[in-house]
Amino acid sequence: MDWNEILRKEENSFWGLLGMRMISADRNRVELGLTAGDSHLNTMGIVHGGVLSSLMDQAMGTLVAVIKDGVFGVTTHLNVNFLSAMRKGELVALAFPVHESHRTMTVRAEVRNTEGVLGCMATATFRLPRHTGA
Q1: Average pLDDT, the chain
Q2: From CA 121, how far away is CA 109, in angstroms rounded?
Q3: What does the alpha-carbon distance between residue 106 and residue 128 come to, in Å, rounded to a whole number?
Q4: Mind listing the pLDDT tens digit for each residue in 15-35?
Q5: CA-wise closest residue to 25 among 59, 53, 2, 1
Q6: Tens of pLDDT along 43-98?
Q7: What sign results for the dihedral spanned by CA atoms 66, 69, 105, 74?
């Protein structure tokens, strides 16, 4: 798996549009960063829930791909709890594995600001593709 190539493709996708960046990734944890600016805010002046949800979904989906050696899953269920308002500045999403079966993976994620305040958390289920090998 060539992560540099994957990240180059991501820069031209929704990941890049939001301004996400990879901080670290291994089979136990993925860490993504985002510098929240004016374009990430809702009309109340806080980071839009869709931005936070997307950040966690991307972190969890990346974790699935890391664990499955480059095989990407599709989000089939996403449950988000918003806990504290997030404002402009640095945000970090962490994703952790929870459970894996033959065709699905369940993962969890959270977003914190630089002060360590927990803004939101999520769980998600990802459907894995069928094996196509012989």
Answers
A1: 91
A2: 6
A3: 11
A4: 777 899 999 999 999 999 999
A5: 59
A6: 999 999 999 999 999 999 999 999 999 889 999 999 999 999 999 999 999 999 99
A7: positive
What pTM was computed for the model?
Answer: 0.90
The residue among 43, 45, 47, 130 whose CA lies nearest residue 93 is 47
Radius of gyration of the chain (CA): 15
**Residue holding tokens 């914190």?**
112
Helix residue ranges per DSSP H, the chain: 3-11, 14-18, 49-67
Count other C-beta atoms under 10 Å from residue 56's C-beta: 27
Backbone φ and ψ for 48, nearest 5 degrees, come out as: -60, 140
Closest by alpha carbon to 113, among 36, 20, 15?
A: 36
Could you tell me which residues are beta bridge partners of residue 43?
none
Residue 134 pLDDT greater than 50, yes or no: no
Query: Per this entry, what is the length of the chain?
Result: 134
**What SS3 class is residue 124?**
strand
Q: What is the per-residue pLDDT for 98?
A: 98
